[in-house]
Amino acid sequence: MPSSVELIQSLINGVGIGLVYGLVAIGFSVIYNASGIVNFAQGVFVMLGGMFAHTLLTTLGIPIWLSAIVSTIAVAGVGILVQILIITPMWVRKAPLFAIILATLAIQLLIEQIIIITLGDQPRTFPSFTPGGPLKIGEIALGYQLFWILGCGALMVYALTQFFNRTRMGRALRACSQNAEAAALLGIPVNRMLMLSFALSAALGAVAGILITPTQYTAYSVGGPFGINGFIAAIIGGFGSAPAALIGGIVLGVVQSGAIVFFGAGFKNVVALTVLLIVLLFFPNGLFGGLAKKA
Amino acid sequence: MNVKTTLAAALAASAFAVLPATAQDNIKIGSSLGLTGYGSLTDGHWRDGLEIAIAAVNAKGGVLGKKLELIAEDNKSTPQQAVVVYRKMMSDDKVSAFDSGCISAGNFAAASFVSKAKLPMFLCSILPRQPDEQKWAFSFLPPPKFEVDARYDYLKSKTEVRKIGLLADPSPYSLLMRGIAEKAAAEFGLEVVANETYQQDDSDFSVQIGRINSAGAGAIIMLGQGNAVVTVANNVKNLGLNKILVLGSINERDILVATGNVLGEQFLFPSPLIQLAADDINVITKPESRAAAEPFISAMKAKFGSSDSSMASRAWDSIMMMAAAMKKANATDGTAVRDAFEALGHYDGAGASYDFSKEQHVGITKNPYVMALVKDGKLVLKK
Question: For B122, which of A136, B245, B318, B329 could close a Cys bridge (C-beta 3.0–4.6 Å)?
Fold first, then answer.
């Protein structure tokens, strides 16, 4: 039987990684709700955030806060490019949704290859935003980066909630998610909203990547696992609101962490997918699917 | 058609007619490599080593008055495709020998028909299993136990650490290493107090590391290559474990540097001298080994910059030894080359020293690894 210290530590670690999954899940939800597209290139934005920030930080010597801001904007730009160059042409030509979803997978592979060619395949990491640590409470260790993840995660959810509920643009995006044709008839530029959703979700992925890199590493290949876990988190949360996606991520992170404690690392994904199946069995629209249909 | 055009056409035709004859004069070396799929990283380095070695041999006039020519085929890291490319290189390219990458399953799958054709196989991987196949195969891979022994020997002779925790991924190679590590611990007076696993793409190993620490281990013995060691380093740091040692597996230079930059002298790893020599040639003190290493390092840096050299160095050695065997045999047919190769005796190469013989087809018989650490972004010997 694991000790209480082990359990608490794994719970904390699970929440930390779960928040990152949650940010990726919100990205999935934003695009899905705006267009019905499941963007499987979402994980690649996580990778790009970490890679860009590392390059700016180590190659150009730009401070981490500025590197983070510039990287987030740059990745949002990549999201817009993806939307303009790939998604919109397919959308305009009325390509079936599954074809567009498949295209997002191809985008992931393409971007990964571009990164290998331009930045190489080696792993990179950079120090925590706040040097030192960890904070010790008894035998429990809390790395300073965890507080950044917690703080930024909460801030992002708050900001997104405000954006979707209190701004014209956010409401317009919600309108598109409810009924794109009706929104277009009301004068909402649906295509521009789709562009906004890609920029927003790419930026969210980038923030996740920048936050998590100091606790592990980034490399061209990290996007896949984050994309899959973010997608599972989005399903558990129900593709509904930002808080729901974030909670879905935390549930997944804690379940995975607990699975390692009780069953070993080999069973982490088995347990996580079993939980997913159980959730879908009892809540086919996800844990919060029926409660909110915002963004 | 005027006279000039006719002459030009005739010249072009004759040039094309000459080309196959020239190619036929070359000694063709076939290589089955996992250039895509899971083996792409290691086999890519193996190919790099083959390329620069063949260029170096050809620059000195080739072998027996002929140029060496590399026929490299991608086996996609699968045994099925390996069989296809081995057969293609035998029937279409008429290769004289094979110098193939690290995809063991692919080399195993082809070994039966390659050995029946009496073609020698120089391998980055372990030897095929059947004795008849082993007669034609030569392995340039250091036995896995050496990697474990280097770390255990360091702990025993240079530290007070006697309790260790194993952290292994579930790949076949790591499972093999884990078995070796469990058995070998007692030989060095060490006790395995924790035995944890991880998945390569996991984003957090804090639970496993916490368990190893709670069990009283003074060192984490990581069994598994790849980027995960960077995450382990960050986790150790975030858990505030500033006394526990992390002893990683052999790895790519960039991965080692990234990990060392996080943990400093807490992170140690076994490394062949050639990997350290890329930063400082003076680590190689044996004159014969240094003489072999210097041209390799020059060629490597000229063509591939700071790319990892450990794998490529053994590929380089395999070509140099193959060329030496062909010269000694004064022939390129399989049986003559194999017999001459077995009779080469002790050979100090760039990547290691080798002692192949008729009975010994695993060439590296002495531990080539030293313990190293990362200092100022460079790999240095741990003294």
Answer: B318
